[in-house]
Amino acid sequence: MNSKLFSSYSIGAITLKNRIVMSPMCMYSSDNEGGKVTDWHLTHYISRAVGQVGLIMIEATTVTKQGQISPHDLGIWSDEHIQGLKKLTDGIKANGAKTAIQLAHAGRKSTYSGDIVAPSPIPFNEKIKQPVELTREAIEEIIHAFKNAAVRSKEAGFDIIEIHGAHGYLINEFLSPLSNIRTDEYGGTKENRFRFLKEIIKEVKGVWDGPLFVRISANEYHEKGNSMNDFVYYAKEMKKLGVDLIDCSSGGVVPAPISPYPGYQVPFAETIRKEADIPTAAVGLITTGIQAEEILQNERADLVFIGRELLRDPYWPLRAASELGVNLESPNQYNRAW
After folding, report:
1. Which member of 33, 70, 247, 256 has the greatest number of CB atoms within 10 A?
2. Does the predicted TM-score (pTM) go above 0.85?
C-alpha cells in the first residue's frame, strides 16, 4: 500500500524519513541530581533510532534546576550538559533518525528541595508544597533560561525543539485559569495568560532557526478550565509567532479522572489542525500501524507520537510496517533476520 506513515515529512530544512516520532518520556535516570546524560540514555534513545523511528524526541529537559520534575531528570541549564547531549544526538543521527529536545520547567509540580514557583500560590494537590508566586523579575529570568536552553540545544546538535506547554507544568499553569489567578499582565484574559508562552517563543525564535514545536494539554478535564476555543486561539497565535507544529496531549493541570482509550486524544489534534490551520501531532494510546495510518490518511494529524509501545518494543516501526505491507529496510547488521 501507499503508506503515509512511512512517507517523509519536511519541516523547514529538516526532513523526517517517516512520520513516527518517539514521544518524550521521562526516564528519571540522570545520576547525582546533575541532569547529565548517562549510558542508560544512550542505549535507550539510540536503540529506537536503530529501530527506524523517524524522529527521536528526548524527555522533558529542564531549563533550570528549580524546574526539574524529579531530581533525576535531564537538564540543560548549564553548558556542562552540552557534551553529553551532543554524544546522544550524534548517536541518534548516526542511525538514521532526526533529533528533538523538549524544553521544560515543572513549575508547581517540581520536586526541587527549595522553593518551587508558579504563576499563583496554589498547590497542585495536598501532597505537593505550596509554590511561590513568580515576580515579574523571576518570570523574565525563566524566559531567559528557555532562550539559553535553545542556544545549548543548537550546540548539542538537535534538529528540532519542542517547548513543553502541557501536563500542568509551568507554561501550562500560566495558560490555565485553574492555576493562574494573577491580576497583572500575565493573568486574567486568555490573551494575558498566553503572554508567558508568547515571550518564551519569541526569545527562543531569536536564537533558534530550526523547526519549533509546542506541546499543549488540549483538554483540562475541568468545566472551569480552558475550552477547545481557547486552545484554537492559542494555536493560531503560536502560528503567527512561527511555531511549526502543535503536539496535542491533554490533562495534568489539576487532578482529574481520565479514562483513556485508543486514540482518545486524536480529536484534539484533528480540531486544532482544521480550525487553526497549523500542522499537528497526535499522541496517546496509538498502538498499531493500522491505527497510526488511519490518523494520517484521514488528515487528522501530520505526525504520530508513539510512547508506551516504543518502551515495549524498540522496533515498533518494523512491526507497523509489517502490518501495513510496507517493505521497510532494516539496519544492515540485522538483514539476516529479514
Report:
1. 247
2. yes
